[in-house]
Structures are given as structure tokens and as C-alpha cells.
Description:
The protein is of the alpha+beta class. It has twelve helices and 18 strands.
Amino acid sequence: MKCRGDRKSLEFFPFFGGVLHPIISFIISLSIIVFVHEYGHYIVGKWTGIEADVFSVGMGPVILSRVDKNGTTWQLAAIPFGGFVKFKGDANISSSHADPKTTAYNRSDLRATLHGAPLWARTATVAAGPIFNFVFSIIIFFSLFVSVGQVREPLTISKINPLPFINQLKEGDEIISISGYELGSASSIRNMLRYIEYIDKKSIDYEVRRDGEIFNVLGPPVDLPRVSGLVPLSAAVEASLSAGDVILEINGEPINKFNQLKDAVEKSTGSPINLTVWREEKIFQTTIMPKREDIPQPEGGFITKWRIGIIGSIYPFELLTESIPVLQAIQLSFFQTYSIITSSVNGLYHIIAGNISTCNLSGPVEIAEISSHMAKEGLQSFIQTLALFSAAIGFMNLLPIPVLDGGHLVFFAYEAIFKKPPNQKAFSALMTIGLALVLFFMMFAIFNDYFC
Length: 452
């Protein structure tokens, strides 16, 4: 059984499917994010007078390379899991310590190395990687907010969705009221739901403006248990549900509200749920297994919820949208990126504290599957996923672990306070420990994906 997203994937990834599709999606996602991160290091280093010998996307054997006019080798390597900028004077790709040959440089050449540059230049260059990841996320969210926009007023139907109900609505209709409740703006949706909460009908009354005239027509109920989208790796994906499906029954009991579906999932506490589903004029049965999700709370602690990964929509049709004002889009973009960072902080804290399961942690296998799912949903969803991963990777690189950018910044802070760099032996030992921690974390994430 194929879902609607599979058809979209033909437009974005026309030659890949099966197991290969997640791998390709993951490689493309990671390569873009790595390029942005490393370019931040490179360009800020260049601005502050630090020269780069190598800029690499990928690790290991070099596939393609070229040398630019500044003497920097730009290369694409065979192993697509990471990348690096090797600055002048570095002994290795992690810039863990200066090349002993640095001592042979004259003063002007030494200034062009990472380790011979002033503290402010080194700090700016190292911090630029995560900052560029955050800026990349902000730019993506801004572009999406501006291009996708917000619901236009008056509420106007842009697309009629197939549904198993009477539907006399047409594209271009301006909605004046639903079941007698006037919809002056999109903000009146919440009040409308309270007003029609107890209506239990297969069709309801709509008052619409069509070609300048007012009509009263019948249309589908609002807040239907209709699938408008799926969360990657969710129970709904595993149950082969698809965007556009309408849930008619839960364990043999008819439903006609999305909240009825939510309530049933919460009450299941993870037990299997039998669903009767309508799809494209056909009805079929499927069983879905809700998944546990531990959600950290701002005030501390966490709550356990059961999820199946169905995204609903209040309206049973699509509405016309218009661009969001630029200032509002900028504000929303910053807020969205900030929310990803704070969620990452809270989640990591609760996992380390043992408050929530490590299954809430996404490793490379799960990230690859998420990338694949979003690519199948279309270019917009894939780009949105890039923004999410970019902000998360920016945050991870700021963790105060040696070999990561955050660890280097801690060393720079030490140097700023004590007016001297850390002891070289202690520095090397900490870098070794940091590398071991990173490798352990990577292996743990892979095994965690497998067992979860």
C-alpha cells in the first residue's frame, strides 16, 4: 500500500527507493548542514586574517578537489559523515594543537595561523560554525513563513479535499459562517470549535460568498479525524496511514472529531487500536500501536503522552494564504530556532538525569529515516527538516566537550581569564577524552536506534 508522499518523492528523488532512499536523503541533509557549519568557520577565519589550507565536505579519501586563488584546497571526500576546515599551522583536522613547524613561521605568517591569531579572532572563528547553523535555520524558517504565509482573510477555499461526506462547497468560496457561527477572522477558530463541539452530523451548514452572491450550502464537518500529515517514524507511518485518510471508527466505535481520536490514543496507554479508515472511496481496517513520548515541562519534570503521529487540521479543505509581514516573519523565525535549541537542552538534561527514556534521543539511523520521510513529503518538508537538524547540530557543537567547538571555546575562556593557554599536556589529554566521549556517544546513539 503506497501513501501519497511516495508520489511526491518521484519529483524530488526520482531514482532512489527502498533502503537506498533514506541513505541518500541523510547524506544530502548532512552534507548541506556540514557545509554551512564549516563555511562559517572558514569565512569568519578569512575575515579575521586566518588562512585555510583545506575545506572538506566528507572525510577519508578525496573524490574531487580544486585549489582556489588563495591556496585553499576545496574537496569532496568519500565518507559523507562530517567535514572539516584545516587552517594554516594545524597539525590535524581537529585543530587540537599547533603544528610544531609553526615556530618556524615569521610574525606575519604566524598571524595567519589559527593558533597564532589573537584570542578574539580564534574565538570568532570557532564560534562561527554553530552560529552559521543557527542563522541557516533562521533563514529557512523566514523563507517558509514568507512563502507559505498565513491564512488570508476573509477565509477563502483554495482546494476541496476528497471526503466521505456531502460537499457542495467550491474552490474560491469565501466562508461567512459555519453552522450559524460567523467567522470574521482566522483567530475565531477556537471559539467556533467550542460552539460546534456537540454537533454530530455527516454534513453541516455553510454560508458562503460565491461570485459576489451569498449561498447556503452543505459541507463536511470541521475538526474531522482526517490525516493532514504524518510525523516521521510514528505509529501512523508504521500502520501505513496516508495524508488524506479519514478515521471512521476506533475499535468499532464511530467517531467524527479529531479530539475523539486523541482521547482514545491517550486512554490506550500503548495498547493496540483497531481503526476503520476511509481512503479514496474505499474503506479498510488497520491496527495501530501508540508510542510513548516523555515531554519535558518548562517548570521542571515531565509528562508521559501516547502518540500515533497523525497531524490533523480544523478545516476539511485548504484555505488561501498570504505572505506574513517581514518583521513578523523575522520574529517567528528567531522564535522557532530558539524553541529547537531550548527543546534540545531540556531533552538532553532529562535523558542524562534519567527522567525520560533514551528512546527520545535520535541517532543517525533515526535521523536518516526522518530525512527520508520528509523528502517523500515534498521539497518544503525536506527544507524544513534541514532547519530543524541545523539548529540541533549547532547546539550539539556548542556542548563544552573537547574536540567540539564548545570545548575549544572553553579553552579560549580559560586563556582569557588566566592570560595564558592551557597546559599542553592537559590540553592533549582532555582532547583525547573528548574524542572518546564523542565516539562513545555516536556508538550509543546507533545502538539506541536499534534497540528502540
